[in-house]
Amino acid sequence: MSAGIHTRPDEGRVGAAPAGASPNPDLIGQSHRRSQAYGITAQAEPDFSSPSRGVLNDALDENRFLFQHAAPVMETLYDQIVNTHSMVLLTSARGMVLHSLGDTDFLEKASRVALTPGMDWSEQTKGTNAIGTALTEEEALTVHGNQHYLNANKFLTCSAAPIFDPYGQVIGALDVTGDHRSFHQHTLALVRMSAQMIENHMFADIFPKAIRIHFHTRSEFLGTLVEGIAVFSPEGRFISANRSGQFQIGLPFAALKAHTFSSLFGIPISALFELFSGAMPNPKQLVLHNGVSVWCRVKVKTAHPWSATRPDAPQGQQAFTAETGQGVAAHAPAKPPVKKMQLSSLQYLDTGDPQVSSVIHKLRMVSGKDIPVMILGETGTGKDLLAQAIHGDSDRSGQPFVSVNCASIPETLIESELFGYEEGAFTGARKKGAIGKILQAHGGTLFLDEIGDMPKHLQARLLRVLQERRVSPLGAGKEVDVDVAVVCATHKNIKDMIARGDFREDLYYRLNGLVVRLPALRERTDFELVVRKILKALCENGEQIGISPEVMNIFKRYHWPGNFRQLHNLMRTAVVMVGCQGVIELSHLPDDFLEELEHGLPNPIPSRLMGSIGPAQPLPDEPNTAPMPEPAAPEGSRLEDVALNAMAQMLRLHKGNVSAAAKALGVSRNTIYRKKDLLPPDVL
Ligand SMILES: Nc1ncnc2c1ncn2[C@@H]1O[C@H](COP(=O)(O)OP(=O)(O)OP(=O)(O)O)[C@@H](O)[C@H]1O
């Protein structure tokens, strides 16, 4: 520490630093040399003059974010060291004390002021001391006894750790200072952990639209102080990582800035949505770029666009989250009723594709006739949304719509989930029993999603319920009448399953009153209108966002394996990237999508589009049903050329600066370097 605290007469001899006092003895030597160079003399009288209130207030204002997050941690830290005649101090990055807690009794009256807010403990003014030296070296350390530069401070023992903000900058220091006789070798570890805790709290509070991944090589360390945290933008660009995160990834902050989620965690960021879907997803294992396997949890702030993409996302809660430890998901009240979306009416879904129109026509014909509906279609084609629309347009719409995803419930739980159970029905059963999903849907609609994943032994039980319209909860010994409309969906070929003996034929015929198939997105003739509708829905806060003809053309030719879900997610990201006003261009699309484009798509891209990024196509007030003018398309053009052309343009615009061009395009620099040989020589 500094500011010069007088050595007490009986403290003339202070021992050398005890073992473990400082991690690196060289640091002290270097700091002494710096102190000398600052012109400080060891015998200098301490300076107790405090700055004006205005200066302190300005510093507090400037460090409000740090203070807010540090104050509660300081309380906890102080609880641990209480009765050790020590104090806990928080300083700014310049070493000014912002806040202090603790017992100053161990100090003489005059010295106490040195530990009050406003005092300066920077190395430049006070020579070697834990706060000033930790801030200079950006390393946690203890300065003990006569390791202090000023004689006046040699009766102290101080342990300090720098605090880094989520952008990797040192914004302050946390320090425990006490009488040198109270030295405890664990103090430094405590201070270091507390600083880390402050940093983690700051992480949790910042980056409103970011995706936060929490990871550790051992799953039991998730949710603890030592977990790694890394933050990425919705399109996968690295934003920040805490110190444990940097350590586990094996790269310092500065190097991480050039990375993306996929370059570090090996999968595209869009794949996270699938990986962590469900109400309370378990930690999943991913392999880092350095081959280290880590357990991960993911959090997205409520404001994140993905949180609203899932129809089952409870309003105001995180749809794509697994709070570390016992977080929101674990404490969430029983799932609130499904939010009825604007999209969930049959009329809204009828956007002109003849296959879809025919499906909707048939569904209207059977509405209210107690005919079970089976929806077939690839993943993400809107089966769930259609089921909601069937319910929403039926005379049961005022009653519950209960969705059960047979693929996401563990086989052992599916029986109790569906049929419910009585108190004490099995080990682990809740005290008062639980009402099953079938009974929850009483009066309304039961949507059995992924029915192909229903375990065989439960198929018979489900069949009985559907035939007899009665349920018997586990352990109840009695049956309860139930009235539900049944809609089910699958992307599997149930007939094949029946042939293999994996699905009961009698259940199939009970469920397939009306079978409808939703076309894949790539097959739809109303693709462009659908894109514009989604865009309009995404701009519900009044953003004026259009889509460039080039992007629309690429979209039309892409094969969309994830169908609507993929399109929706991609457009949400693009809308976020564009901001409040503008046009979605190639550069607004996520890295992994662009990289996929680089590998070429089956359909040719008109060469006219390769020459320039086309003029903005503003979003019309009402969906524009007129097809976009199709430019003449010479055969043989490849999508890769579009990407190359965009790279060349950006490089020209940025005068050959690869980093700037990569940033503008939303791709990594390596993506451009990999194409170096294919780019015109004048651009690089
Ligand atoms: N016609 C549509 N217009 C706009 N968005 C749609 C449409 N259909 C589906 N979506 C959106 O696409 C996403 C996936 O839809 P949904 O969950 O209904 O698909 P699914 O076929 O049930 O998928 P899975 O088989 O994987 O369960 C949702 O975000 C939904 O809002």
From TrEMBL:
SUPFAM superfamilies per the UniProt record, alphabetical: GAF domain-like, Homeodomain-like, P-loop containing nucleoside triphosphate hydrolases
Spell out the Pfam families in the cross-references.
AAA_lid_14, GAF, HTH_8, Sigma54_activat
A GO BP entry is: regulation of DNA-templated transcription
| Sigma-54 factor interaction domain segment(s) | 349-576
Name the source's superkingdom: Bacteria
- Which GO molecular-function terms appear in the entry? ATP binding; sequence-specific DNA binding
The record's listing under InterPro entries reads: AAA+_ATPase (IPR003593), AAA_lid_NorR (IPR058031), GAF (IPR003018), GAF-like_dom_sf (IPR029016), Homeodomain-like_sf (IPR009057), HTH_Fis (IPR002197), P-loop_NTPase (IPR027417), Sigma_54_int (IPR002078)
**Extent of Pro residues compositional bias:** 617-632
Q: Alphabetically list the UniProt keywords.
A: ATP-binding, DNA-binding, Nucleotide-binding, Transcription, Transcription regulation
Q: Which PANTHER family match?
A: TRANSCRIPTIONAL REGULATORY PROTEIN
The protein's name is Sigma-54-dependent Fis family transcriptional regulator
Tell me which species this is from: Hydrogenophaga aromaticivorans
